[in-house]
Amino acid sequence: MRRAALLLAATLALAAPAFAVEPDEVLDDPALEARARDISAGLRCPVCRNESIDESNAGVSRDLRLYVRERLLAGDSDAQVMRAVVDRYGEYVLLRPDASGANLILWLAAPGLLIVAGGVAFVSIRRRASGPEDRLSEEEEAKLRDILKP
Fold this sequence. Notes:
Blueprint: H1 2-15, H2 30-41, H3 59-73, H4 78-89, H5 102-129, H6 138-148
Helix pairs in contact: 2-3, 3-4
């Protein structure tokens, strides 16, 4: 039983996300390193899709991690570091872009289209449920009855 628990713990430890931060990148000051990790977790690797620079092994991610730490050592605030990285690489590098400006259109487009599609579906279903709009005249009904007579 004990072996099974140890095996399970080892498996779970190996399944945890691996961080690509190399030992030579780690700052001596634990507070600055924690800030660097927080910033890195919010930045997307320009090469990898939906992977933070903290998790990516790509060369550009390493350069970005070093750049973030360099800016922190220079005395920049977290916001200044993020602004410098966005200025250099564009908003694509943010894992969670701001919901403002042109991005607001993207944030609102999906819910807006869902509401429009729901409205179209509602109107379409209501029209079908109301039955056919064109009724047969009495003469046409008489002809139909004659045709359907056994």
